[in-house]
Amino acid sequence: MAVPEGTYELGPDDGRLLIRTGRSGLGRRAGHDLTIEATRWTAAVTVREPPEESSVEVDVEVDGLEVREGTGGVKPLTDQDRADIVRNLRTVLDARRHPRITFRSTAVAVGGGGRAAGGEHDVEGDLAILGVVKPVRVQAVFDGGRVRGGAAVRQSRWGIKPYSAFFGALRLADDVEVAFDLGFPAGGA
User: What pLDDT is attached to residue 25?
Assistant: First the structure.
């Protein structure tokens, strides 16, 4: 395994945790595909051999979600657009009642990359959004001291109605992509 055994405390200084959205509907050309970054999050990753004994816990502060990029659309994304999106996001995610989104692994399985190279892993776990807990599968690829990967999250599984405008002609796609690219600090606890 490329990352030595141990427990690692990770956060924004160690890499990026992103949410990417897409558009659907007849008016999709008017909207933007968004890249939203979690700017306040923590992760505890316990790396064990065999990898199936490893675990992951992630806590994301809803108030720390920030719009980083908006592509597509008829007009460029403005600072006011970004502020409106963040305000809407915090309302939809009910940040006052549910200030955190959490992930707790329940199983780790070695994928096609094999053990020797660190390789690919499937991490199954429970994702809690708005107090609703549903299982998800995260794919992770270890490469040296880095791990990259992500998961598709269907918002409606957690009771979230994707944003829509113009009487439904412009809609946020139900599936969003969560992606991460993290470096492990030297030496775990």
Answer: 54
Asked if pLDDT for residue 168 goes beyond 60, the answer is no
Catalogue the long-range contacts made by 96-101 (C-beta closer than 8 Å, 24 or more residues apart).
97/131, 98/62, 98/129, 98/130, 98/131, 99/61, 99/62, 99/63, 100/59, 100/60, 100/61, 100/62, 100/128, 101/59, 101/60, 101/62, 101/127, 101/128, 101/129
Q: Where are the domains of the chain?
A: 6-183
Residue 76 phi, psi dihedral angles, 5° rounding: -65, 155
Query: Residue 167: which pLDDT band, with cuts at 50, 70 and 90?
Result: very low
Stretch (H or E) spanning 96: none
- Domain 6-183 matching CATH 1.10.1040.10: the answer reads no
Quote the tokens at residue 106: 């329940």
Tokens 């993290």: give the residue: 182
**Residues across the chain:** 189
User: CA-to-CA distance for 64 and 39, rounded, in angstroms?
Assistant: 5
In this prediction, residues 104-120 reach a mean pLDDT of 73
